[in-house]
């Protein structure tokens, strides 16, 4: 009889390394975390780490890329199921963060990793690529919800998408630093104000 394959797939290994790296980064800091510590936390050898990533920087870039891809997939799925802007925003509000990837569950770590990569000028194009993908997604959402409501927007959708993304990142940072004066619904309240300014119906 043939033996059942029990060795983890490449995707399984990467996912375990992502989860382990998130834990180690939060405990030891991104700069202080070693490849050995990350591999050990994932239950792998140093060799297993290097069979997937050439360096810690490459691991971080992969984690950021995975986060953006998963976030975009979840949001596009929500947009497909919730056609009106009001329903879509309600679905966003109730999204289960515990089911997300490590960076989705920890906004602070996500921001720390972005800043860590941004310190290396040669790595910034990697971040810019993902930022543009996020902007494109938000622009698509604005155009789709406006079209579904039968209205046209006052603001250029691309510029409106940049505004929405800046609001999201800004309120996330403010919430981390000063939660007392930044309510959890600050971003969505701002979206409501922006929505009215753009003349998009919520129906």
Topology of helices and strands:
Blueprint: H1 10-28, H2 35-42, H3 46-50, H4 56-81, H5 85-93, H6 102-105, H7 107-118, H8 124-149, H9 157-177, H10 186-198
Can you put this structure into words, describing what you see?
It is a single chain. The chain has 203 residues and is mostly helical. It is built from ten helices and no strands. The protein folds into two domains: 7-53, Arc Repressor Mutant, subunit A; 56-198, Tetracycline Repressor, domain 2, CATH 1.10.357. Helix 8 crosses helix 9 (157-177). The longest helix is centred in the middle third of the chain and has 26 residues, at 56-81. 17% of the residues are buried.
How would a crystallographer describe the biggest sheet?
none
The Cα radius of gyration reads 20 Å
CATH class of the largest domain: Mainly Alpha
First-last Cα distance: 61 Å
Structural class: mainly alpha
User: What is the CATH architecture annotation of the largest domain?
Assistant: Orthogonal Bundle
State the helical fraction. Answer: over 70%
Report the order of strands and helices.
HHHHHHHHHH
Integer average pLDDT: 87
CATH topology name of the largest domain, in short, is Tetracycline Repressor, domain 2
In the predicted model, the low-confidence regions spanning at least 5 consecutive residues are: 1-5
Number of distinct helices: 10
**Structural domain tally:** 2
InterPro entries: Homeodomain-like_sf (IPR009057), HTH-type_TetR-like_transc_reg (IPR050109), HTH_TetR (IPR001647), Tet_transcr_reg_TetR-rel_C_sf (IPR036271)
Domain HTH tetR-type: 11-71
Pfam family, one: TetR_N
GO molecular function: DNA-binding transcription factor activity; transcription cis-regulatory region binding
